[in-house]
Specification:
This protein is about 25% helix and about 30% strand. The chain is of the alpha+beta class and about 250 residues long.
Length: about 250
């Protein structure tokens, strides 16, 4: 099988996951339980590719698995771990490739849902893959002039297997599942490929096949428990109050 055919099969498979995952998660996820296990953090740091040839992006996602102990391919609906997985955060930073020390913009995504994870044990770093629905699109302060008339882009993060993709859209397409008729827009852009038309596309990377930004190693993410966070806040407020009393005493 040549590289072009392999890439087409990969995209067709991931598009199927995208549609089925969105419908299943939208219909099956209920209120998520409080965190009881160590969340996992995954990072990705690729170059963007067309039409933003000078753009570099660095991202990370933090995923809470509730108290799910299942291993292998674990779906976020049905038994045994239905509704356990959720995103604590998902962020992307933009840089110019010529100066990766200066952040051009930070995007904090919301609205994405975990469809499934692949892991050897419940605890990171023994995770290898995540499939999600796309996150709600955000306006990027990144201009690109490769295509006439396109001076603004909206971005939507999407985790697919062992890769991260960053959609771009000429106009805001709206959240993937709200309303559901936006699904063809996302799937169409995914199948068309990076920069293939003037309206939408995907990030490229130096990964063979252009499948996206390959994940770095998963790692534990230290997230304070609600009780611990309350103690930290109380201690901070107490210290601030003590400082204020001392300043007043000196006055």
């Amino acid at each position: 099988m040549d590289a072009t055919a392999g890439k087409a099969m990969f995209k067709a498979s991931m598009a199927k996951h995208l549609v089925c995952g969105v419908l299943a998660v939208a219909g099956a996820l209920a209120a998520l339980p409080p965190a009881e296990a160590a969340p996992a953090r995954v990072r990705f740091t690729p170059e963007y590719g067309e039409p933003f040839d000078n753009l570099y992006w660095s991202g990370e996602a933090v995923i809470d698995d509730g108290d799910c102990k299942a291993t292998g391919t674990v779906w976020n609906f049905g038994n045994p771990c239905g509704g356990q997985f959720s995103f604590i955060s998902a962020t992307v930073e933009f840089f110019d490739k010529s100066d990766k020390t200066k952040v051009l913009q930070t995007l904090s995504f919301t609205g994405g849902q975990v469809v499934s994870v692949q892991r050897s044990t419940p605890k990171p770093p023994d995770w290898t893959e995540v499939i999600s629905t796309p996150f709600d699109p955000l306006a990027g302060e990144i201009e690109q002039t490769k295509y006439d008339g396109v001076n603004q882009a909206y971005f939507s993060l999407f985790l697919v297997g062992g890769f991260a993709q960053l959609y771009w859209f000429e106009k805001n397409p709206g959240p993937l599942g709200d309303p559901l008729w936006n699904i063809p827009i996302y799937v169409g852009c995914y199948l068309i490929g990076p920069g293939s038309n003037k309206h939408c596309g995907l990030s490229e990377s130096d990964v063979e096949g252009g499948n996206g930004a390959k994940f770095g190693v998963f790692e534990p993410a230290e997230i304070p428990e609600p009780g611990t966070l309350a103690l930290v806040l109380a201690a901070g407020l107490g210290a601030a109050g003590l400082g204020l009393r001392r300043r007043r005493a000196r006055a």
